[in-house]
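Course assignment 3, question 2. Fill in each field.
Student: A.L.
Task: Predict the tertiary structure for the chain below.
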Amino acid sequence: MTTAIRAPQGLWRSLWLASRPKTLTASLVPIIAGSAYAFHFHGRLSYWVIFLSLNAALAIQIGTNFFNDALDFIKGADSHTRLGEARATQSGWMSAKTVGLLGALFFLYALLFGIPLVVIGGWPIVGVGVLSLLMGYLYTGGPFPLAYVGLGDLFVLIFFGWVAVGGTVYLHSGMYDLSAFVLGTQVGLLSTALIAINNIRDQNEDVLAGKKTFAVRLGRFSKWEVPFLYLIFFALNFYWGFLGEWFIFAMNAALVFPAYKLCRDVLRTRPGTIYNQFLARSSLIHILFGIVFSVGVFL
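Answer field:
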């Protein structure tokens, strides 16, 4: 089954679609949740940190997406048979060279916003920034691309969970603790659900292209990764109850209803274009967590 590819109207529309907007919650939620956490648990909140971190994080993710777009096409992982939404290089909107250059420009943009963050957070932020940029490229590029050997899911958990949330909390407060780690794990699990659904959808194409994602390695059990991730997420939610943070616990627990429906539909549905809808629903749950966690904190 193939999907018709329509050229978007105008350059900006092409760039917007190439950035993969449905996945950008992976950059937004760690900043939102980490900032709310720093305010509630440490009494620290800097609007400059929020502004700079959002720009840097979004730029790194978009740059990573552009590199992934170009390199997947070059390596044959994106072809006319792909079930996912149209990609810029594969669709012919832009050349692989142009898309790769745009990825580099977004990394440069992230670097510019990262410099004042280094001034605020010191040398630990240098390490976080350099490693994030390097791994963003190595996700698809280099001699050992993470996405091609089944480490993409772990990459997302680490960098869009532990690193992003922990870095945000540290920039606000200069501190890092167990509760920030738990929050980072929850955020990372929801981010990993995004890539899991994406890879389940593309499983058959990835096999043909020699792309051994975690979903490919799991084979017929790959669908169970999604409910497993959500199960751990909700199990960790009891931590907030043990701390006596009952508003946080209750607000997070409300997400069990959309999460259950999504997991049920994933388990019942064969990989196809409908997984694009599942990806959007997973993204919605992700951003809702950022919102309800923040509301629970302020309540």
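Instructor remarks: The chain has one domain: 11-298. The two ends are 48 Å apart (CA to CA).
Grade: pending
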